[in-house]
Amino acid sequence: MRAEWGLVLEKVVNHHDHNALLELFELLLTEDERSAIASRLKVFQALLEGELSQRQIASEFQISIATITRCSNYLKNMTEEQRDKIKLLILE
């Protein structure tokens, strides 16, 4: 599975054309999958910024508390080094 995911990442990274990349994701992922990824990214960003409560995040972004709780628990189980890496990847 890891090698297969590596192939996906390789294809994504090698696309320098924004429109081609959008088209690739439209072909590979359903609308629900794209929406779920975007929502999860918003949740992680909001949780890492630490300015909003989980209820505020749910209300502001129209995301279920269950999704926010899963993301929060995932962050809590990360090492500090992992949290620092994810902050660099999605907050900057």
UniProtKB/TrEMBL annotation:
<dbReference type="GO" id="GO:0043565">
    <property type="term" value="F:sequence-specific DNA binding"/>
</dbReference>
<dbReference type="GO" id="GO:0005737">
    <property type="term" value="C:cytoplasm"/>
</dbReference>
<keyword id="KW-0805">Transcription regulation</keyword>
<comment type="similarity">
    <text>Belongs to the TrpR family.</text>
</comment>
<keyword id="KW-0678">Repressor</keyword>
<dbReference type="Pfam" id="PF01371">
    <property type="entry name" value="Trp_repressor"/>
</dbReference>
<dbReference type="InterPro" id="IPR010921">
    <property type="entry name" value="Trp_repressor/repl_initiator"/>
</dbReference>
<keyword id="KW-0963">Cytoplasm</keyword>
<protein>
    <recommendedName>
        <fullName>Trp operon repressor</fullName>
    </recommendedName>
</protein>
<dbReference type="GO" id="GO:0003700">
    <property type="term" value="F:DNA-binding transcription factor activity"/>
</dbReference>
<keyword id="KW-0804">Transcription</keyword>
<dbReference type="InterPro" id="IPR013335">
    <property type="entry name" value="Trp_repress_bac"/>
</dbReference>
<keyword id="KW-0238">DNA-binding</keyword>
<dbReference type="InterPro" id="IPR000831">
    <property type="entry name" value="Trp_repress"/>
</dbReference>
<dbReference type="InterPro" id="IPR038116">
    <property type="entry name" value="TrpR-like_sf"/>
</dbReference>
